[in-house]
Write a structure and sequence with these properties.
Elements: H1 3-7, H2 9-14, H3 20-28, H4 30-51, H5 60-72, H6 76-80, H7 83-107, H8 115-125, H9 134-152
Helix pairs in contact: 3-4
Length: 155
Amino acid sequence: MHQTIRDNLEEFLKGNKVPQELQAHLDACGECASELSLFQSQAAMLRSLQSGEMEPRAGFYARVLDRIEQEGRSSIWAALLEPSFGRRIAMASAVLVVLLGTYFVTTESSEPMNPSTAESAMTSSLPAQVSLDQDGLQQQRQRDAVLVNLAAYHE
């Protein structure tokens, strides 16, 4: 749209008298004339909305309030009950059970270890040049006993 039309657009849409030079430009320029006709139709629609009172259909407010109440009732548990989310949780739980079961089966030994075999396993896993003397072994046992007491402590 050309500047001359833009400057006088508001006056033209109000229905005021159009100057002769603007009318000549609109007759010569098809682009400005088509845009101006679109503006005129939009202005007419807006005037029709402005003049009449529009009331919502019967029961509109009741439906809005019912919808607000329904949406307000949803909780965190509603998300857990969604079918897609429930399937994901079930699959993740199944994978976790399989992984933990595999871990426990592969790490469990066939015979339970006695404390004496555990002690011999600890000392045998140490390199040959590092040997604990009797005092060092006694201190290690005391530390282990303190750790067990701390881990088993219940208030």
